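Lab notebook, page 48
Experiment: co-folding of the full assembly
Goal: obtain a model of how the components sit together before planning crosslinking
Operator: M.T.
Materials (sequences as entered):
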Amino acid sequence: MEHPSWQAGVYAALKAANIVQIGYVPDAGHAHLIEAAHADPDMKAVVLTTEEEGIALAAGAWLGGQRCALLMQSSGVGNCINMLSLPVNCRMPFLTLVTMRGEWGEFNPWQVPMGTATPHVLAATGVHVRRAERPDEVAEVVAASAALAFDTQIPVAVLFSQRLIGAKVWVK
Amino acid sequence: MTRSNDGTLDRRVVVAELLRDPGDLLVVTGLGAATYDASASGDRPLNFYLWGAMGGAAMIGLGIALAQPRKRVLVVTGDGEQLMGMGALATVAAAGADNLAIAVLDNGRFGETGSQFSHTGLGADLAAVATACGWRTVVTARDMDEVASLRLRLRQENMFAVLRISAEEKPRHLPPRDGAHLTDRFRRALGIAMD
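Observation: model returned without errors.
Model output:
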């Protein structure tokens, strides 16, 4: 499966930030990262049944001296709200990369409410929100956000705009 | 639906036995009574107590276990906390961390909130769920002889244990609740350099 080249840049940025655990709920926008993580013997890729598991996984990784990132869609952010009290209370770093739905050329109305709420919900729970819009800036935004999260021990979410990922094409 | 709780074990005696002579065992406790039981058995920096984040205990254990493959991790939690994170039983089994075990103190009740029946008191069987999720070693203990044999097995095997405790409530024994403090002391005790 072919992936846009910026996705390889994101994986390289996670590696450069010493991320060695990745929890994920799949998304097409994260497909390259998930494949690369599973193919990398130095990366532990953990498939989750629901997104909040990834926040607890990341907390455990930090307690054990490692760095973890969570990959999810904007629809998953809503599942995470109470679990975000964990990194906030424990002054732990947390990094999540969120592919946005419901904001650009969306076909499925069920994606719109949570897509619209995503940045507000994250901010309300104490997560610092950054956004990547263009292919040429994504890797840099991820690298800077990883530094912010792990060097200052705060939770940070990077939202990948739906325009960047490309609206899902539906064919009847 | 049958409402039942046939557990007779004393939760505090069970946890004191499971955590006796802990060495460098890395312990995560689920919020509520499991946290108080572990605290009552002796506070130590390598106990990471949850006071919230309900449903997260098993996954925190997995993150630690993957990061510290040469150490043993034991998650001690209640039936209500594990029920909220039931999907994590599939996630942890699929991740295959051999150095992790989970012990669920099962009284079939939500003890912290007025002892309402939980799903395990209404017919759900967490041991069967764990088996169905891919856990290969699953044990249900009903007496102290079984608990005593589990003490070492939980430090040697990738296992899921259900301990059938009575619904008797115990006095609260409160450990530190500042998450940043609990995190820092856990990492320091593991020798993780502060950066």
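Interpretation: Residues 101 and 157 of chain B are 7 Å apart (CA to CA).
Next step: discuss with group before ordering constructs.
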